Amino acid sequence: xxIIPISASAGITxxxxxAAEYSQLTCTLDEILIEHPSSTFIGKxxxxxxxxxxxxxxxxLIVDRHVTPRQHDIIVANLNGExxxxxxxxxxxxxxxxxxxxxxVFINDLDSFSIEGVVIRSIRCHHPSYxxxxx
Length: 135
Hints:
The chain is mainly beta. It contains one helix and nine strands, in the order E-E-H-E-E-E-E-E-E-E. The longest helix has 5 residues, at 29-33.
């Protein structure tokens, strides 16, 4: 994979040709982003409840089932048949949104609850891709 070193700041008016210099990486994006390929899946974020931690509607979530969930990890869980992405509060048995408008959800013994994995990365796509269409 070719890496083009571009250092851009807000308000940039131009920069040197990116092809002028580049370095070669000996790994792929898969190797950089995914630590446990056989236990990793990619999901798509929906809604605004995790904006406080930088996850926005439409972002891709790289979720690893191999990682043991810890206090305040971002997780994907199945709560009563609905998939959710939330911060995990292990001590209070609670799922917390990263948006003050959304109240935390307590997990009680009557709930059907399973953690599907820990979100280890998120990716924001700035241009539509036919590969990500919901068709």
